[in-house]
Every structure is written in C-alpha cells, then in structure tokens.
Amino acid sequence: MVETTTISKRQIKQGADWSWLLKIFFQPKRTMVKIIEAEQAVWFPALLVLSLTAIALVIANGTIRQRIGLDNPAQLPEYFQWYTPEQQEQFMQALQATSGTGFVFILPAIASIVKVWFGWLIVGSLVYLALTAVGSAVKSGTALNIVAWASLPFALRDLVRAASITLNSQLIQASGLSGFTPVGTGNGILFLSALLSLIDLYWIWQVVLVNLGGRIASKSSTNKTATGITFTMVFILVIQALIGYGLALLGTNVTAVQVFF
User: Fold this and answer.
1) Quick one: which of 16, 93, 96, 260 has the most CB atoms within 10 Å?
2) How far is CA 6 from the centre of its chain?
3) Where is average pLDDT lowest: 13-17, 20-24, 125-129, 138-142?
4) Domain-by-domain residue ranges, the chain?
5) Which is nearest to 146 in space by CA: 50, 221, 225, 46?
6) What is the distance between the alpha carbons of residues 17 and 42, in angstroms, rounded to a whole number?
7) CB-count exposure of residue 209 (10 Å: 0-12, 13-18, 19+)
C-alpha cells in the first residue's frame, strides 16, 4: 500500500502541471524547482502556448496588412503598359498572391510555429552545452524544459503586440529598443537596429528565468552558471541580429522572405 502511494506521488510529480503557465510569472522560483524535479519532458504546455500566441500575432499582423492593402492599392510599375500580355498577367498574379490568405496568414503562421519549435531546440541545446561547459551535471532534457518555460514571456509579448496592433489599427514599426537607433545609414546602423529590435523587457525576462533555472539545476558555482548562460543568450541574440541585418541588406526585393521574420 505504501509502495503504491509512493509510485502514485512520483507519477504526479513527473507530469507537467498546466497551472505552471501562470505560476512561472508569479512564483518563478517555486515553479522552476518543480520543472527541474520532473523526470520527463514537461515542455509541451509551454510550447503549445507559445505557438498559439505566435499565430495570434500573425492573424493581427495579417488583418492589418490586408486592410492597408485595400486602402492603398499597389502602384503599377512604370511602363507597365509596354509589358507583354504574359508579363502583365504574371505581375498581377504575383501581386494577388502576395495579398492572398496563403501569403498573409498561412505561410507566416507555419513559419512562426517552426521558429518557436526550432528556436527552442537550438536555444535549449546551447544552454545545455553552456551548463555542461561550466561543470554542471544538468541533463539535456532538463535544459530543454527550463528553456521552454523560461520563454513564456515571449507569449505575453505576442499577446501585447497583437492587442496593440488590433486596437491601433497599425503595424508595429519599431520593436524592442530599435527606436533608439541613431539616425543615419550604413552597415553599422543596420546591424544596430536589428540588434536593438530584439532587446526588450521580455527578452531580459527570459534571460533571468533561464538563469534562475540554471542556478537551481546546476551543481557548479552560481557565478559560473550565470556567466555561461548569460554569454550564451547574448551570443544567440547576436546571431539573430546578424540574420536580420542580412535580410535588411537585401532590401525590399526580399519582401517574401522578410515576412517570416
């Protein structure tokens, strides 16, 4: 009877608790302890919420984009009348495709979901490597659990952005700290703008939560753990900024690519 009760408590302890979705914001340390104590993957509720909020942001963006397209129809290129009938038809088909449901909603939604899941795997793997490098005995599954739940501030950010876009009926032009980018042109300004657009309260929140989870799970010193995790998160941020910088260099000719970022 005692053994059965012990097994039952152990099984309950291992499962993900959906109440963590709120507790991670209000009781982060206590919640992280439970996440780390879990002996199986408990990342699904967090990633599900991140995926749903990412889709909500895509819907808000897409709705406004379509509205802007209706209010401000695209201008035909110069000398359009001299295009061959086949060229004119191809141009109109491409124009219609970029304003259609598939391009405005479906493809960005798929890309956002892929970004959530692959981003989680990449960040989780790098955090695990960082913890291993500082002498921690954290398992890879535990690192993935920590990163998944520590990323929930991004879900809150998506909801705030979606609400802002819907209420103001306009797209967000300067995300993060990009509004503080110095006026000017050049590669340095483009990279700085891409970097600052990724830095906001929610990213800092994520870094704090990952550090909290890493310190609880790690057997190495607090300073080593904090240094390793923070360096890793900043490194990931710089890589993301370089990707955004590369897209910015390509200019307006890659609108079809930029929609995914």
Assistant:
1) 16
2) 39
3) 13-17
4) 39-71+86-258
5) 46
6) 8
7) buried
Sign of the torsion formed by the C-alpha atoms of 24, 113, 99 and 74: positive
Rounded CA-CA distance 153/158 in Å is 9
DSSP single-letter state for residue 197? T
Q: How many CB atoms within 10 Å of residue 6?
A: 10
Q: Is 194 exposed, middle or buried (0-12, 13-18, 19+ CB in 10 A)?
A: buried
> What is the rounded distance in angstroms from the CA atom of residue 239 to the CA atom of residue 164?
28
Rounded CA-CA distance 140/131 in Å is 10
Q: How many of the other CB atoms lie within 10 Å of CB of 146?
A: 28
Does the pTM surpass 0.85? The reply is no
In the numeric block, the tokens 């141009």 are attached to 91
Residue with tokens 């990633």, as numbered in its chain: 47
Structure tokens at 153: 């501030």
Give CA–CA dist 102/105, Å, rounded. 6
- Rounded-to-10 torsion of CA 73, 77, 83, 85: -10
Nearest residue to 148 (alpha-carbon basis) of 219, 237, 66, 49: 49
Q: Which amino acid is at 69?
A: G
Q: What is the largest CA-CA distance in the chain?
A: 87
- Interatomic CA distance for residues 131 and 119, integer angstroms: 18
Only one residue has tokens 């879990």, namely 38
